[in-house]
Amino acid sequence: DEDITLQDVEEWYEHDVPSSAVQLLQAPTTTLTGVLDTIMSSQAVADGCSTKDTPPKLKATFCRQCTNNKQLVVRPCGVICGCGTMYHHEAVSNMLIMIEKMFTLPRACKPQHMIYDSNCNALHEVESCNITFFEGMGMCVDAFHHKTKHKASDMLCRKCCDMKAYPEFLDDNGRYYFNSSIPEQTNIWFGGFHDICQEMTPVKYDFFFLDEMILHQNHMTVSTLQTQGKLPHHPPVL
Fold first, then answer.
1. CA angle, corner 116, sides to 112 and 122, nearest 5?
2. What string of DSSP letters covers 65-114?
3. What is the crossing angle of helices 119-129 and 92-102, to 10°?
4. From the centroid of its chain, how far is CA 91?
5. 190: buried, middle or exposed (CB in 10 Å: 19+, 13-18, 0-12)?
6. What are the start-end ranges of the H helices in 161-213?
7. 74 vs 8: CA distance, rounded Å
8. CA–CA distance from 11 to each of 2, 27, 37 (Å)?
9. Closest CA relative to residue 180, chosen from 138, 207, 141
């Protein structure tokens, strides 16, 4: 009889006489290139390659998946001007991509400054990857995090990410014109809806929370500023 090459999907049963057990056997699995895994692993060892180069096994997930967090972009006056979803990690690179996409939309005005609690890491990322969008933009750490959460030995953070290095942030008495921790206060309001929203589907969550609730919050913030004699408005498009 001519030997026929076994396929990946073929399986058969064999009877073990000494133990009287029946075993289910399968043909060896192959990779995407049709090469046996055993052959590839032996070749990798012979070539001195690491076994970590073998393709990973795919795993199916049949349970509910949750996003990591929502990132809010808040103006110094408290108005929420944008948001983004971080599906796996709050990575600095993801935050930079979100900011670039947000302020390259039609009629969007690129900000002169961006205040972020990990802006020193973001500045390292911008300089190492040569991201031209952030050229000429001040990248500061908010006053609270810069004073209590960042190392004094980080010279780049102390030199380029200190709000006190920018005179436009200070009044004649050396105090800040605005509260740089307003995003943290907005997060407290944002987190109050966590128990309500954690069981929502993505479509309902985006409509209820990201669209309706943020719009209502912005209307209330603008009304409060107007009653205080402030003039909240959009900057002119240059």
1. 90
2. ----EEEEEE-TTS-EEEEEEESS---HHHHHHHHHHHTTSTT----SEE
3. 80
4. 5
5. buried
6. 182-191, 194-197, 202-205
7. 55
8. 19, 6, 17
9. 141
* Residues 146/161, Cβ–Cβ less than 8 Å: yes
What 208-212 contacts at long range (C-beta under 8 Å, 24+ apart), as own/partner pairs, is: 210/70, 210/83
Banded model confidence at residue 121, pLDDT cuts 50, 70, 90: confident
Sequence-distant contacts of 226-229: CB under 8 A, at least 24 apart = none
Polymer length of the chain: 238
Q: Please tell me the distance from the alpha carbon of residue 143 to that of residue 176, in angstroms, as a whole number.
A: 9
Mean pLDDT of 151-162: 81
Q: Give the distance, in angstroms, between the CA of residue 88 and the centroid of all CA atoms in the same chain.
A: 7
What pLDDT was estimated at residue 238? 54
Considering the entire predicted model, what is its pTM? 0.65
pLDDT digits 0-9 by tens, 94-118: 889 889 988 888 878 888 899 888 8
Contact 119, 161 (CB under 8 A): yes
Q: What percent of the chain has pLDDT over 90?
A: 6
Place of tokens 């979803």: 85
